[in-house]
Amino acid sequence: MGNARVVTRILLLVCVAMLAACSKAPPQALGTLEYDRISLPAPAAERVVAVSVREGEQVVAGQSLLKLDPTHTQAELATALAQAQQQQASLLELRVGPRQEDIAKARADLAAAQAQARDARAYYERLLPLSKDNYVAAADLDRARAAAGNADGQVGAARAALDALLHGTRPEQIAQGEAALASAQAQAEAQKVLLGKLDVVAPRAGRVDSIPYKLGDQAPVGAPLAVLLAGDAPYARIYVQEPMRAHVHVGDTLRVHVNGRDKTYAGKIRLIRSEPEFTPYYALIGEDAARLSYVAELTLGPEAADLPVGLPVRVDYPGAGQ
Question: What is its main location (predicted)?
């Protein structure tokens, strides 16, 4: 009897072991902890004249991170403001129209041209009868005729100049002046904005991940001056294998295991990419190595705020494959 009981227990243990071996483990997705990275590019190629924070320091929104040399931009701003002021004065001159003194001068020029024309015409008319009896050379008569015609032309030009002043500024000229003023003012505003950007501030709360350029360096335009890790807690970026994709939805809450931590964190899926992406080597599990993967992101609660970025994570999704 004793031997029979021992054999029975052994058979039961073997059956349990076989059932455990045959049971399918819940699917998993692998990934890493990440933060939203904010890169602050250099707005101008200027020297770094002040660095107010250190790498790893926690900052709040609006806090000054570093400053660039404003000397050149201030000079550009002064030039733009002077040009805008000049264009504004020119536009005012166009709107006011010609001065009365200019009109009076134009009237005087017309009167003088008319007097010269009358004199030239009278001289020509005196010579004309004399030419019939050959008392005047033909060349002299031609010169008198040309002088009279030239004087008449001067009268026409003077009269046109006076009419232009009397009619005032054309609407097209005022429109051009307004456009030139708007362009100059826009240039000045652009320089003001650029001057403000030379004081690099944190756009949102986060932690300083890196400051590539140090005091005295001159970064090219567009180069990252500072990189922030934004957010109160990291999020898990995982690679969902193709067989699991149909079971994973935005808003689902999954169990997140962080490498080196015994605690399990609750993560809520905030997005899933619609297009499959390259699967990193650490997410290739068995047969899944030949299948597509979709990037998904899970938000974690405040209890994960102390977790460092880059840690490997494993996400369980028990509902898939059932």
Answer: other
At residue 221, the pLDDT reads 93
- The domain total for the chain is 2
Q: What type of residue sits at position 289?
A: A
Starting at the edge strand found earlier in the chain, the sheet holding 199-201 runs: 48-51, 64-68, 199-201
Q: Give the chain's radius of gyration (CA, Å).
A: 44
The answer to whether 40 touches 210, Cβ cutoff 8 Å, is no
Indicate if 34 and 124 belong to the same structural domain: no
Predicted confidence (pLDDT) per residue in 10-33, tens digit: 444 444 344 444 445 567 888 999
Whether 233 and 286 map to the same domain: the answer is yes
The domain of 129 spans 79-189
CATH number of residue 256's parent domain: 2.40.30.170
Asked if residue 202 belongs to a domain, the reply is no
322 is a domain residue: no
Identify any residues that bridge with 267 across adjacent strands, giving them in sequence order: 254, 300
> CA separation (Å) from 154 to 116, 151, 159, 216?
9, 5, 9, 68
Query: Is 43 a member of any domain?
Result: yes
Residue 50's φ and ψ, nearest 5 degrees, are -160, 140
34 touches 12 (CB < 8 A) = no
Please identify which residue in the block is written with the tokens 């699917």.
Answer: 27
Both tokens assigned to 277: 């992406």
CB 31 within 8 A of CB 240: no
Write down the pLDDT at residue 141: 73
251/305 same-domain check:
yes
Rounded Cα distance between 85 and 81, Å, is 6
